[in-house]
Amino acid sequence: MKPAPQRIVVGLSGGVDSAVSAWLLKRAGHEVVGLFMKNWEDDDDDEYCSSNVDFVDAAAVADVIGIELEHVNFAADYKDRVFAEFLREYRAGRTPNPDVLCNAEIKFKAFLDHALRLGAAKIATGHYARVRQAEGRAGGAFQLLKGLDPAKDQSYFLHRLTQAQLARTLFPVGELKKTEVRRLAEEIGLPVASKKDSTGICFIGERPFREFLSRYLSHEPGPMLDERGREVGRHVGLSFYTIGQRQGLGIGGVREGGGEHAPWYVADKDLKRNALVVVQGHDHPWLLAEALEAADGSWVAGAAPPPGDYGVKTRYRQADAPGTLHATPAGFALGFDAAHRQWAVTPGQSAVLYDDEVCLGGGVIESATVPARARPVSLAG
Question: Is 202 part of the annotated catalytic residue set?
Fold first, then answer.
């Protein structure tokens, strides 16, 4: 049966995914209202920010589809709920994922609350994910599923959504592949059909990341130490580096028994000594974690899944890896066998669990464990 028409508020970002989402809902007979969210105001008029351009594009899309468009400023909420936490994490030596927090606090909280005040039955966004109401569960539990396009699935960023949020949310393009979305946009005549996908963190745009962070974080230079504790370079401040980083280290190769120079990677941060631990080679043992611990768990079903084996992502665009879940007093731990050790597990990022196509939730990575025989000097004791 065709669902009854509803009033649905769509987050129109100025991109092709949200534009096609709005069109699909309008075609299905719903009363669709577009809402453009402005989440960042600081230096918004310089060469790196594109919110003004995005709003013009969103308005053009709304005009073609024939829907109303409202412009809402959530910049204050963003600064309080997302950016402040973003800076706290960097100051603590971690690498946060603001897109995860933005979804939980702004796009599916402040935006949802605003849409409900507008009389909406549901909201919709252009995320590549799906929602399914699980049959036979008490209360009709909602499940968060991966998008059908494996190259575009965004469930990793949405894992903190709750039952109440999922009950009010639609992801119209989650059933489509990106190529199909582009094709539909061309057929409809949407002005953003060939617009490049946005990259990076939503409020930073294309600006140099280290330059941006340096406005808000103090930087205390210190040594870069290799696995033997030798100083091989100097860092500009621990906050400006992340585990697994290769670019921007500014150190040359050191030959090990001749041969080509192996590239350097960040393996650890020693906050007590203000030292950055670096190793050579992508598959160096210090970069391969056999376990991790996470806190601040958030579970889609409302409770943690039972201990056992699940698919795990420790970063976006990563294939699910088999991991074993254990409960801990602060959250949970995940263990990985020797064939599936996780590369460059990064404190501050999210560890997200899956049961096949169902996203179960996850938490914020607190620490990673590398094999004892290969533990960095900064972790040795």
Answer: yes
